[in-house]
Design a protein that fits this description.
Elements (H helix, E strand, L loop, with lengths): L2 H8 L7 E3 L2 H18 L8 H11 L1 H4 L7 E3 L7 H14 L10 H10 L1 H19 L6 E10 L2 E11 L5 E11 L8 E3 L5 E3 L1 H9 L5 H12 L2 E14 L18 E10 L6 E3 L16 E10 L4 H10 L5 E4 L6
Parallel strand pairs: 10-11, 11-12
Antiparallel strand pairs: 1-2, 3-4, 4-5, 5-8, 6-7, 8-9, 9-11
Length: 334
């Protein structure tokens, strides 16, 4: 197992946090989550939308049948469980090792279906799944990417860290670091011989350890470790996803229990944030945060919600003093 995956596996990924989905609910669940992501169209501060949708398509029984089951959700986030997500990644490795099932013809699948319906169905779905997995990227368990943004009087890098968190959400941390020309020679981010940016493995471990660290404290850690200045730092989460029949948090208002609700949350501290603010009705404002001069800090939470939840959602958010941003969530049939 790759080192960048060990942090995730070593965390609190416990079986008792997972709830099996009834067989008839698997397809509707995956398609509802897909519809929520499409409705909100998250920007680049979030994990990549295309990878998210690709991963969900792999989990969809219309693509993979029962090959990746058991289909379970993480009760803490309402998103697909870590093992379910990881099985798609493992299957992708097999799909990319060779032609295998992707070379099966329609005639071969049809013959298998006539001889043994169950075996034929598995061949059919494995062929569909392998075609998909050979061509498309999935969400990673854990990934750190860095890129050179500017080279001149200052040397600037952008860092993106994606992670399936122990609580089941999909997280991305983005940081822009700036320092005097040459600072990277002494820090954890540097330019390789080919000019591409690379990061020390310890930086990824640090980010994994500080998933729940308050944003301003995380910025201070990155400033200290890098020897540069973090001019923009964001942390975003896809999830939780509230789906009928799954456990709801105790604090969730009763009016939001009977429908679909996907949360996307973001917090950003940056020089280009002109006005600080708190637009998250689920989490209370932080107390005692010190924001540097010339920086702003804001937090917001957007929702994709079933049409029947739009009015209760806005009413609940208004009680919290937030004018909520919400998009209608209407799953496709099938």
């Amino acid at each position: 197992m790759a080192d960048e995956q060990k942090d995730a596996v070593a965390d609190d990924q416990t079986a008792d946090a997972y709830l099996p989905l009834p067989e008839k609910q698997v397809g509707p669940y995956v398609r509802a989550l897909t519809a929520g992501l499409n409705a909100l169209a998250p920007n680049r501060d979030f994990v990549p939308l295309r990878e998210s949708l690709n991963h969900l398509k792999a989990l969809d029984p219309a693509t993979s049948g029962t090959l990746l089951w058991p289909a379970e959700v993480d009760v803490r986030s309402g998103l697909p469980s870590f093992p379910w997500m990881e099985r798609a990644i493992a299957e992708q490795a097999l799909a990319r090792q060779g032609e295998g099932y992707t070379r099966l013809s329609d005639q071969e699948v049809a013959r298998a279906l006539r001889l043994d319906a169950a075996l034929g169905a598995r061949m059919h779905h494995r062929r569909l799944l392998h075609h998909h997995l050979r061509e498309e990227a999935l969400l990673p368990i854990s990934r750190l990417e860095v890129a050179l943004k500017r080279l001149g009087r200052s040397t600037d890098f952008v860092l993106r860290f994606d992670r399936m968190t122990p609580g089941g959400a999909w997280m991305r941390v983005c940081a822009e670091l700036s320092g005097r020309a040459g600072w990277e020679r002494y820090g954890p981010i540097r330019r390789g011989a080919d000019g591409r940016a690379v990061a020390d493995r310890g930086l990824q471990h640090l980010l994994s350890r500080h998933i729940g660290t308050p944003l301003m404290a995380l910025r201070a850690q990155l400033n200290q470790v890098s020897g540069a200045e973090v001019t923009r730092l964001s942390r975003t989460f896809v999830g939780p996803f509230w789906f009928p029949g799954l456990p709801m948090p105790d604090a969730a208002p009763e009016s939001l229990h009977k429908g679909l609700l996907l949360h996307l949350s973001a917090e950003v501290v940056a020089r280009d944030v002109r006005q600080s603010g708190h637009r998250d009705p689920w989490l209370p404002p932080a107390v005692g945060e010190i924001v540097p001069d010339d920086y702003g800090l804001y937090r917001e939470r957007r929702f994709a919600a079933s049409p029947n939840l739009m009015t209760p959602l806005r009413d609940w958010a208004a009680q919290k003093g937030v004018d909520v941003i919400a998009a209608p969530l209407v799953p496709r049939a099938g």
